[in-house]
Carbohydrate binding domain-containing protein
Amino acid sequence: MRTHFLKSIVFSSSAGFLLSAFPLSAKSETIESDQLNVQIDAAFPRVIDYTWKESKAVLYGQEAALSEVKINGEAHTPKVSFRKMGSDKARYQLDFAKLKLSMSVDLSVAGNVLQWKVSDMDEKGAFKVKSIEFPNHALVSIQSNQSDAALATALTTGNWNKITEEFTTLADKAVDKAPVKQSYAVINTGQLAASIDNNVIQYERVRAQTTASGDQKRYSIWNGVWTYREIDTETLALPWSKVFITADENGDGTVNWQDGAIAYRKNMPEPVGSDDIRSSISYISFNGGSVAIAPFLRALEDAKQLNLMLDGFGQMIQLKGYQSEGHDAAHPDCAGNYNRRAGGLNDLSVFLKHAPKYNIKPGVHINVSESYPEAKNFSDTILRVPYQGGWSWYDSALKMDYRKDILSGSLDARLDQMNEELPGLSWVYVDVYGDHYGNDFWAAHKLGSKLNDNGWMVATEYFGPMERQLLWAHHLYAVPDTKLIRFIKNHVADIFKQHPLLKGAKAFGVGGWENNYNFNKVVDAFFTTNLPTKYMQHFPITRMTDKRIDFEGKVHVEDSNGWKLYRDGVLLSDGYSMFIPWDPVKEDKIYYRSTSTETRTWELPESWKNNKTLKLYQLTRLGRKFVQDLSVVDGKVGILAEPNTPYVLYPAAAPAQNVIWGEGGHVKDPGFSSETFDSWTKQQSEGSTGEAKIVVDAHANAMLSLDSGKSGDAKAVGVSQTISGLKSGTTYTASVWVKVTGGRKASIGVNAPGQKMLSNWVDRTDHVRSEGRLKYKGTTFQRLAVEFDAPKGGGKVNLMLWAEQGDAGSSARFDDVRIIELQGKTDRKNALVFEDFEHVDEQWGPFVAANGTDHTHLSELNPGKTKDTINGNFSLKNLNEGKTGEIYRTLQSTLKLKPNTEYTIRFEYLNENAEGRFIAAKSKDGGEAATTLNKAIPKGKGTFTATFKTGKHSDYYLTLGTDKKSGKLFVIDDFLVKEAQ
């Protein structure tokens, strides 16, 4: 027996969708609410017209009689029975005898809303419903003989940032040869406005068409195609639609599209997390290329500092690169494969655990459009076959098949594992999802619903995909200007570009993305842009013009000799100064900042006017600093404060701020963020004139400075800390970022009681860091690390940072101390350096980027799937560099080569280049003339060996590079350097 699947349902007029100058003869009935009379057709679930009771104004529905329904794309004529179910509801029974199918369609009205819905479906035979459509089923219409007839529409698609909007009068609207697909549609006359919503899961939820009969035109809107059964094993919700009718909704004395949009918004379900988006700044914390650019625990420390600087304002932090070797590595592994260089699942869990204390909403970046061979989930089960290439950065991806991913159960399994392993996760950013990777509206619906079902807010790279659930979009600069959608959704989502009046979210942070590390820049963006934006987002828009926008709550913003924000007619900000209560509902405190050097007087919110005095605090890196009490006179307060300095006012003493620096890690106050030595003990040799102090750079980042003293100092000065909680016999690295000037020697060391100190040192740091997004890009900081074993049986170790000799005025700067547990220990083979890349704590073993590489990471073996790992589980890989010169290089902190000494180098390689790759031994002091090794690396796979002797200079380093823009794969492993025998 052949099984039939019901794919769609369409209602159409046998006479075509034409206007009639006179009502057609049909038996009509009326359902009504306290606001509306709705005339309906008793022969078919069709609306004839709407009458607004108060004014008797009319909007039309479908004038021509209907008889057909499309089911699964084919037209069928059902037998229809009708009955009233009270004054406000009617039910139609539609029987399709040939299909052995029946359904109930209810029309009901409450207030100003008509609901049309399929309340029951009975598939009595083998035939199964897949999709349902009602073409030409005009639910609400306007005619050109009605005054001020006009329309506003918007179409979004799965295409990246493709949005089209239209605002026009019906008189100017051209006749449409066929129905036009839309996502939003609002119509109005001079008396009434209307819009519709439904549960169609396609982007094109609405159909609209302009038709004409003689010299009269009609514009009608109705529903698109409902998906009921996309796959045989699952049904979606039964179809429903709502029509919202309104008069002058915003009370401005006119009726236009904005009134219809307000009516739509009042009935629109808000995206999951919209309360959080209104009260948070957002930014990206980045890890990529096996480089721990923003390790999870340091990201938490940075967020704590912002928490103090912004007085507890919410932070939505996207952890980009939380998996595998970082960003764009091992997608689509959402779970079970965490970035060990950034701290792994343990440190990520610490971040999630402590985030609520600091008003942080943590999010992660996933990609379910591309898969990389290193991924644990890499499989034909989820890939497009034949294969299609995707993004190529650290690895080369293949495009995924959205449907295969869903139908195989892999997508749900990965997301559920992530939900289980990452409790406390608030939002998920979905990368590159949309038409470019095979747009699929059903897949987008499934993905967005799954993310919401797991309790996560939804974010995407571009506006469009999952637009109904979308809360945050990345490329806001590329979003077209939109009036209709922004009018409706400005208060629930950061998905719009900057606007002259509404401003718009600026995702400035301190997590490295786009090289943002400047705390001061975040604070400045907060007060000039983000704070007023978030204030306005607490109030839905009610009226919009080019020069003024009004919101609920008696809030408005205007362009009147400059940008100005008001509430109840009281100025809150003029763009130069601001006096903004927060939160906008509770008004617990008031943020203040001004460019003025003179006293400014501000009118207080009504809830504050009974106070006699207020307390003014300055906001600093260390939290609130009390300034003074301010007197309230006639409900106003005058403020004289430092210009361009952030403050906050409280009606009484502000609550305590408690920040624990270093929680969850082995090192207390690892970034010296407390600006004290409460967690560190100063160490100083007898007679030393050096000084240990905390300094703060221009980005408001604190660090330790060990200075030599005015006359120079050959004796040590430093700090120490006792470290506990280490696992018995486990191998760790202790590391710190360091920069020296004036030849001062800086060291890090670790020892257990009674044991010899293990240490590492540098006395020059002159290589300018070029790694993209690295906190120290453009500086000469080096990471100085020492490997050690925790004492057997447990116990404590002593960690020391110290500086020794140096010229007068020399210094050593230390920042971001870290202790990392290694997953095993490499046998160094008694060599100066031996790196098999199996147990690297962070970065690339002895190498750093010499020339800003963005295409290097540790490639991980995935048996049978990867071909870019030489020995063991990890190798160092460079892909598609597209540049010449040095690619990697060693530093004094990773390889110390003595002058006039002979060395042997050996490493395994995989080289796809016919020519170009080289290894060299160079000296910056000696220039090119001092180069003592410069050998080509052959094409293919093999072992490279060479012997070279350094010259008289003490700064020799090894570099790997290319003199050709090859764009080819290059891998090394088991890198060894030792003194020649």
